[in-house]
Amino acid sequence: MKASRNKILSLLLAVLVSWSCQEIIDLDLEQSEPKLVIEGRLVNERSFQKVKISESLNYYDTSGLSPFTQAEVSLLDSDYNVIDEFVYYSEDSAYRSNRPIELSVGQEYILQIEAKGELLEAKGEILENATLDSLYYLSAEELNSLGQPAFGDGFFMFVNGKLNNEGIEYFKLDVIVNDTLQNSRGDLSNSVLTSEFFGKEFSALPIPGSFEEEDSVGLELYTINEDVYQYYVEFINLLFNDGGVFSPPPVNPTSNIKNITNPENKPLGFIQFSSIQRRSIVIKARE
Fold first, then answer.
1. 71: closest CA among 97, 52, 48?
2. pLDDT per residue over 197-226, tens digit each?
3. pTM of the model
């Protein structure tokens, strides 16, 4: 009996010692050459079109992304005719078109970037947007009275409309509440949409989130090409990757930007070519 008790005490002691002797190990990760990180959203809205370019950091570098200012950025039509050349502005660390430009629905465009002696290129078509016929909201009490579940308190928003293109369509929906973009990883995962899930005509399509009285809610609906949709899906999967033994190893999302000069040296980021629709509403309690 005594021997058995001693074995148990020895086992407990071994466990305690193993817990108290954990050592923090800094992995000697291979340092790599910085890669270009490119992000841009070009739309059918008369505005100064913008593209941001920075350089990637190594894992232990905490200095923050620094803008890359030595690029040449050009917007071309599908026949490679130059529409405009962008200029770098330090105020917002972005390359901007020289003049307001409105991209045309149904047209394909090319963005070219010359940097570090290499030519990069992204292509995309401006697709016709969906039609948003009506935007409305219901309180949790109103939903319950209609026999519909309300997941929480406050007000819930819905939209009716229809699609205008053949085949599967892809969208990015930005929700702005009181001038603040809702951009948590949960918000992002709910903002990327495919028409596979709501059909050619949609009624009472829910807008993600709940809202409070007097909230000013803005919606920005962007059409996106399939390659950009896939980028968002891969990026969202990366955000929710917990690094566990059952999770796939993290990899960079597939960019729609190609390196024409050196295909093996792929840049990071994406260029989104979109048509845009804006809608807004202020939440008011029923009288």
1. 52
2. 888 888 889 999 999 999 999 999 999 999
3. 0.84
